[in-house]
Amino acid sequence: MMLFIRSSSFKVPQLLRGLATHAAAADIRLPAVLHLKSGQSYAGRAFGAPRSIWGETVFSTSITSYTESMTDPSYRGQILVFTSPMIGNYGVPLNSAPRDSRDVGMILESKKIQCSAVVVSDLAEKYSHYSAVESLSSWCLRHDIPGITGVDTRAITTLLRDQGTTLGRLAIGQEVSAPQPAENEYWDPTTENLVDQVSTKIPYVLNPTGDVKIAVLDFGVKANILRSLVRRNAAITVLPWNFDFNTVRDDFDGLFLTNGPGDPTKCLDAALNLRRTLKEWDRPVFGICMGHQVIGIAAGLDAYRMTFGNRGHNQPVLALASSGSIKAGRVYVTSQNHQYALTLQDPFPAGWEPFFINCNDSSVEGIKSTAESGKKVWGVQFHPESAGGPLDTIDMFSDFVAECRSDMLRRYAEVESDDSTIHQGVGMDTTSSPRPISVQA
């Protein structure tokens, strides 16, 4: 039997809240213009903070996770152009989380917006997501970050791709009518030590009850790197970028070097300290992005500035060697954010070999110690932890933590064997395992 319902007798109840929330529009009425040092200007409307800024203009090909990109400390000092046409459609979540074995105190990649400004083609005036608490515009206003919308980001991206990253000036309000700045007026953020601006000033500990102790040199760490370590039950101690790890290295089972903004040559102090570590210390070391570049410099490689860098969640890399979950000959899709890279040279420094190569531009995407060196060191230019982006290489964290844990257990076994030898014949029981060594940081 078929049942027919007349449309006039059936009413859908009206929800108190619509499917999307309107963003406040009052702060996007000011005029704005993006000036580039190369001579071009792009006019649009302002949103966020009503103030003008200087910065380095870069583009990202990511199509999602704008909140994660904007809070990534590696974007410090940069005017971020999103190639994706609509930005802001799912709003901004509450950036708060526990500090426990599952999280590190925040949802996004840091506590605040790190880029200097954002450039979007179409700012969403409505946002819709179950976790959203505010619009992109109001979030930028609250963090004093300006933005511009209504510009052709395709044209800007094409320009930056063809001529390279350039310095910029985002003028808002009355400053729109001012002449374009002279070339010598543009501020270059890379002349400053951006790493020192974003690195922690004092050491702190996360997941202190973890079963393996890892030190983290903070060059501008993304929260998901820390999260990826603590979720693998590592007790991590986060140290300032220029902290001399050699003074405490025997207290740890591994060393991790994080991502960070700017020029790696500003971090030569860290590279020199690391060179001693690599020479005298045989425990696992892993570096990502800036950390990878610092490892390369410590190993004897040079770093250079790329034309426009690699920024996005869709960068393919080819594995040249196998290690743990990584298999030689396979292409992995990765998330990246960097302007500098290590020089590919032949021969490579003794004890080192290329690990990954970029499939688009053949730049070095990873290095590792050789099996003959007896070391356990890896560095990758991309971000295995994603946030956002693909998870093709996320198991590199499991590989690293497992290597630290295995190395720790080996050392404990050696200590137990030495104790057994020392105490043989003096009436002591050597058959029981030693009391576990504390891993409190």
Automatic annotation (TrEMBL):
GO terms for cellular component: cytoplasm. Coiled coil: none annotated. This is Carbamoyl phosphate synthase arginine-specific small chain. The lineage of its organism: Eukaryota, Fungi, Dikarya, Basidiomycota, Agaricomycotina. The keyword Nucleotide-binding applies. Pathway: Amino-acid biosynthesis; L-arginine biosynthesis; carbamoyl phosphate from bicarbonate: step 1/1. Residues 429-441 have a biased composition (Polar residues). One of its GO terms (molecular function) is carbamoyl-phosphate synthase (glutamine-hydrolyzing) activity. Residues 30-171 form the Carbamoyl-phosphate synthase small subunit N-terminal domain. It catalyses: hydrogencarbonate + L-glutamine + 2 ATP + H2O = carbamoyl phosphate + L-glutamate + 2 ADP + phosphate + 2 H(+); L-glutamine + H2O = L-glutamate + NH4(+). Belongs to the CarA family. NCBIfam families: CPSaseIIsmall, PRK12838.1. Signal peptide: none annotated. Residues 420-441 are annotated as: Disordered. Pfam families: CPSase_sm_chain, GATase. Keywords: Amino-acid biosynthesis, Arginine biosynthesis, ATP-binding, Glutamine amidotransferase, Ligase, Nucleotide-binding. Heterodimer composed of 2 chains; the small (or glutamine) chain promotes the hydrolysis of glutamine to ammonia, which is used by the large (or ammonia) chain to synthesize carbamoyl phosphate. It comes from Schizopora paradoxa.
